[in-house]
Structures are given as C-alpha cells and as structure tokens.
Design a protein that fits this description.
The chain has 325 residues and is of the alpha/beta class. The protein is 40% helix and 14% strand. The radius of gyration is 20 Å and the shape is globular.
C-alpha cells in the first residue's frame, strides 16, 4: 500500500536509534523528538516517551547473540512471506529493539528514524502497510544502516534532509570531519601500535564497520577487525595477533558495566592476552557503537588511549580506563 504524506517543519519525530537521536540533538532539534528508544540518553530528550525495550533480557552474551539472530531471521521471513500480523511486524521488526505499538500510536509520529529489520530501505512496503493498519496513516520512515564512515555521514545528512535541515546537516558534517582530521594530524609521525578492538567478549567479536577506519586514522594497525563484518576471534588468533593495545568497547555497556564484564571474563579473556599488551576498557554504550556525532568523541578517546602524549581531550576516567587502573 503506498501512501502520500506531506510534512511541515516542527515534525513529531520518533527516534528508535541512539545515533539518530544524537544527530537530531546536534542539529538543535531535540524538542521535535516525541518518542525515543530506551537507549537514547541525550539530556535533551529525556522527557520524550520511551517506546522500546530490549528484545531479550537476562541471558548470557553467547545466548543473546543466538537469540537476536533467531529473532531477526523470523522477522525477515515474515516480511518476505507477506502474511505477518501488522502489530507483530512493528513490535519486533521496525526497530532493533522491541517496540511498544500502543506508545507509538499515542505519540502520533510524523517521521520515524530507525533501522528496519529483515528488509532493505527499498523493501519497506511491509512496514508501510503495517503502520497504515496500526496507526491509520503512514509516517515517513527513515532507514539508517551505516556500515562505515562514509555511510555514517550520509545517514547524518539523510536525517537532516528529512527534518528540512539540509544546510545545517552539511555544516554539522563539516565540523565532525574537522574533529576527525585534527585527531588524525595529532598522531602523524608517532608510533603505529598493533590494536585489537572487541565489541563482544563471549564469543569474542572484533569491532567492525567504522572501528577499523578510526584505528587507521590515528595511526594504529587493526590486527583483528574488518570493515565488512564483525569477525569472531579465537584466543589462539588473539595470541598470534600479539596486539600492543587491546580496546574493549562492548556494545550497550557503559564504562562501569564494561569493567565488570571484563572482570567476569577475566579467566577466558584477560588471562590469554600477551603480557606486553595494554588493555583499555571503553564506554561502549556511547563510544565506537554509534554511527553519528559521537564517532568524533570516539576517535578523540582513541588518541588518548594509543597516543597519550599527543593530545588530552578529557575522556580518560570518564569514558575509558586502563584495566585495573
């Protein structure tokens, strides 16, 4: 079902991705957000209705990986079969989180910033149809799925354009580029440490997408990660890679939880690290995990970790710590 909707400025926005919320707030439009995900933590949107929760709770990291894969597979199959209950599709597929359909109805969004599951941006008809049935109209869906730095800036501009802020979007991207370039320049001519960054500890998965790019920009050599995919790494492979610096930035875990997670995995993870390796634990809830404005914060924190003599930005102790510091 195709629908035609016209939007004015001052739109009612639901942001179901923290990175999208960060971008809206960086544009100075936090008041336009009427609904958000439970992970959106910018101070400017704390009064917005929380519309999501985690799809699964209270299980181990390894079981969580399997559960989320199974959930996404079932949503994908439902989308392609064309015979899925509309509210089920919205609840489990419109976002990376479980979405409360009743809350979505209540906030009456004109635009939804999200990452649809099971389909690509050109295959969003099942979601449009489901929203039309559930809400009685079709909000504009902005699908965001950046997988590298270039696509991150494209998504920032996509959000800006959807909100009628083309010029502000370009200005924001220019400022973020300048911060990345300043960080890069501060590392020119310095050592080139071997770096292993992990976004998950059990099983052990390397940082992917924009993470290897950030490491390269500050002169590091990513010895386990790939832009194209998160790589599962064995302890033998980690030993063979012999990194100078290991960075742990577990998705969804702030610094305190990240430190606790490393402590829990110490026997299987810390004990196998080369004795010469430095281990830094990062706030993975905000840094390295969000393809948006906070990637500028991420690269600045990375400069502090890899080249502490180069530049002090003030993240140490607040957003990252050395293990057992």
């Amino acid at each position: 079902m195709k629908t035609s909707c016209s939007f004015e400025f001052n739109m009612r926005v639901v942001s179901l991705l923290p990175s999208a919320t960060d971008t809206v707030c960086a544009l100075g439009l936090s008041e336009s957000i009427v609904g958000r995900s439970h992970e959106c933590d910018d101070e400017g949107v704390q009064g917005a209705t929380i519309c999501t929760e985690n799809k699964v709770e209270g299980i181990s990291q390894e079981d969580l990986s399997h559960a989320l894969s199974a959930c996404n597979a079932s949503v994908s199959a439902a989308c392609r079969s064309g015979c899925c209950d509309s509210e089920f599709l919205i609840e489990y597929g419109l976002s990376v989180y479980k979405l409360d359909v009743e809350k979505l109805k209540h906030v009456k969004p004109e635009i939804i910033l999200t990452q649809m599951q099971g389909v690509g941006p050109a295959e969003d008809e099942p979601y449009k149809f489901a929203l039309e049935l559930a809400l009685g109209y079709c909000p504009k869906i902005v699908h965001l799925a950046a997988a590298n730095l270039k696509e991150t800036w494209e998504d920032v501009q996509k959000i800006s354009d959807a909100l009628g802020q083309n010029r502000k979007g370009k200005e924001l991207i220019k400022k973020l580029h300048q911060r990345l370039e300043t960080a890069r320049e501060s590392c020119v001519g310095r050592k080139s440490p071997k770096v292993a960054c992990f976004q998950w500890l059990n099983p052990l998965f390397s940082g992917s997408a924009w993470v290897p790019e950030l490491i390269r920009l500050v002169g590091g050599q990513d010895v386990v990660g790939k832009v194209e995919e998160a790589v599962q790494v064995t302890t033998d492979q980690l030993k063979e890679a012999n990194p100078d610096v290991v960075v742990v930035a577990v998705c969804g875990m702030n610094l305190k939880k990240g430190l606790e997670n490393v402590r829990e995995q110490a026997a299987e993870f810390v004990s196998v690290l080369p004795k010469t390796s430095q281990l830094a634990v990062v706030d993975g809830e905000r840094l390295f995990s969000r393809p948006g404005p906070l990637l500028a914060d991420s690269i600045e924190a990375l400069v502090e970790i890899l080249h502490p003599e180069a530049q002090v930005y003030g993240y140490h102790g607040q957003s990252w710590k050395m293990w057992e510091e």
